[in-house]
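Posting this for the archive.
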Amino acid sequence: MSLLRAKHTVPKPTNSEVSILRILWRDGPSTVRHIREALEAERKSTVGHTTALKLVQIMCDKGLLDRDDTSRPQVFRPRIAEQETQRQIVSDVLDRVFGGSTKKLVLQLLGIKRASHAEIREVEELLDRIEKERH
């Protein structure tokens, strides 16, 4: 199994859903009001309450969020951990766009954005750990 493959299949979130997930991963369990306000701050534009509520309801139906119905207002939390969701999305991109080639993906990533020395060291350490595990 590829290192980028998640153990469980995560429902594929849309861009708007990823924005909401990032807010919840950053801020923790939140109300629709908090999510809407955070989206507005991020987008620098108005987001309607019913729009935010509908997105959150869809995400609950897809299995991306859990809803706590015991409190008012309701509180929402991600069902899937940030790292697992990231792995699933990257795995999908790896397969669809790069034909499964990790090398092509990594070369594109490093070519798009200049990595800091600390990031390069972390990548080198990861590669060393992977190499050790193979032997």
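The chain has two domains: 15-78, 82-134. The longest strand covers residues 65-68.
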